[in-house]
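Standup, Tuesday
Yesterday: got the pipeline producing structure tokens again.
Today: sanity-check two examples.
Blockers: none.

Example 1:
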Amino acid sequence: MSRGRRRFVRALVVLGSLLAFLSVFAIWVERQALNTNDWVETSERLLANEEIRGAVADYLVDQLYENVDVEEELEGKLPKDFKNLAGPISGGIRQFAGEGAEKVLETTTAQILWADANRTAHEQLLAVLEDKGETISTEDGEVTLNLGSLITNLADQIGIGQSLANSLDPEFGKVKILESEELGTAQNIAVAIKGLALALSILTFLVFAAAIYLGSPGRWMTVLFSGIGLIAAGFVAIVARQIAGGIVVDQLVKTESVKPAGEAAWSIGTSLMVSIAVTVIVVGILFAAAGWLASPTRPARAVRRVFAPALQSYVPWVYAGLAIVVGIYFLTGSTQGLRTFLTTLIIAGMAAFGIHELRKMTLEEYPDAKFSDSFGAPRDRIVSAVRGANLGERAARLRLPERRRPQPPEPTAPPAPDEAPTAVVFDEDARLERLERVAALHEKGILSDEELAAEKARILGGDSS
């Protein structure tokens, strides 16, 4: 490549890495803020946290005492002589209610009420943001999280549920999420978030695809550095999340006692961001592995030699396997929107192009590749090892020493012309077979112990009779 083209390819790799970093945040905001299932799942995890559950319990108790005069209710129920104890008892109940509220929030009923309240509020929010015209679930353009049912459930636990129901305030237990004057801005932000997440995701891979296409010759290095760029983008996003967490919590939470709950909320609320960043890192590892596989290094060539027969003789099956993997990934993904479909399609196209290029390389390097070339030698070694183990087992069973490497015979004087050899040397396999037959006859009772010993001595001595 010319110097200018090489610099342009490097710039594309850097730009793609930056877009990948920004995509992590854009996708997180889209899924966390505009996907009801993800929002409800996160809210359930928030309530499961001890610090956050304690903060919610305190809020419920405060709302209960703001909407019900507990002291007056107790005074009406206590006997005449004990009415002056209504105040102290009310304070004691408040302490008890704070502890009891946490236990109430741990129950399955409370968790279902919490999830339903969050789901309803988020569905109302989306209806307003998407301008569906169905605003009957909001009041004056406001979206609220209604926790009244949880507070009523708490009041039932301390015996004032009916009194609470008779004195409910219209704003009882409601947390405002969106007000009418913020509606226009919120709708514009929602549209921008959706468009940004989609655009950044697609642009990231298109920029990398352009860099890889223009990176020939030496395309493998472009693929390798694209993978490194994706890995770096994922790790930087995780580090940025940690740094931003401290800043956000310090700015939004001024009460020291509530900061642990704020830190827990940030950690849980951004856990989806970590998941997205990890996905980017995994994709980067796959890119880096593909770049290494196409490199001219000796280990890479050895791996290509193993894959060469499949790429040359079974290429339709290879593409079919890729299609199955992509289909499973898409069907089992947490979201199946347009962004997921398009990004999955682009990655699948790049993978198919990589298989095509790898097949061309193997055709040039190993035009007559066969599976026996790669797996024949290991197979022969395995068969030889198994046969050796079987012979050793047979020798051990017959109390014979295992076969040793044959040594060259010592030179001896040739026999005299009229002198004949006194013994015949048998092949060791033949002696093993004869010994096995003799042992079988002994096990059947045909040969006695003395006869077995005599036969073994005769066979080991090389007697051919």
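Example 2:
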Amino acid sequence: MKADANFAIHKSFFQVYTDMGWHIWITGFADYLRLERSLSDNTISAYVSDVEKLATFATGKQAGLSPRDISQADLLDFLHRIHSLGIGEHTQARIISGIRAFFRYLLMEDEVRKDPSATLELPRLGRKLPEVLSVHDIERMIAAIDMSKVQSQRNRAIIETLYGCGLRVSELIQLKVSDVYMREEFIKITGKGNKQRMVPIGREALKHIRLYISGSRNQLTIARGFEDHLFLNRHGKSLSRVMIFGIIRELCQTAGIQKKASPHTLRHSFATHLVEGGADLRAVQDMLGHESITTTEIYTHLSREYLRENLLSYHPRSGRSN
């Protein structure tokens, strides 16, 4: 984010890490998040970055502040600075969450006696509904795959798996051949925090995975260490997140789909179409790997047209004859 990148830095990051002992606490905090909280690398990186911003702000003060010196007033001053830079509310909320987690860690380690972040309030966030592709959009996307190209069968299997199982992009690129249980029609997914779950996979997706494995994948020279990775690039190594984004973007462009689509759009579409079809919300939660049912409940609000059709079809006073 531009405003985030322009955060006023009073000292170099090297100095921030060494002055007042911040580097020791931040390193310990990162280890705590990784080993005890089992958070993903992306989440750890975001939290550490947020605490580094606080460290930059604190050591830039005239007297220089360590975590032990910081008061609630200092934190409010820091948050006011963040807000004045035009940083969005969602990012502000994440920064506050990171700071809270940092001070809870320090409190647990007896490095501070009082948590100055305890009463910080998160900004009120409206629930933003994610972009969703229709079933017709998905079909157009699949039809846009040029099956004469070398990687076409792989790309077809990727789209079928993303949409058919609701995977995160990180879960897709980590998927192993040994994680696909063909006979049982399930795949084993390693999600956030290395938590594993079993997700049913449709026969259409399995068919294209089989065709890919026996076809173009079988013709690759697979690099050492990637023998069990399912989806590979032309060098026989695992695909990157950027490559998956590129495949989806190109297919949408070819299909004439105007919506801004990403791998997560296919995940949202998977969940939305299940809920619209009457799937149990708890089952959808398990398949998506959501810790909280409230995260899954967003999909009950996505399709106004679907709700409208239900009203017209089943309500006795809708005016439509049954």
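Quick observation on example 2: The domain at 2-108 is CATH 1.10.150 (DNA polymerase; domain 1). The radius of gyration is 24 Å.
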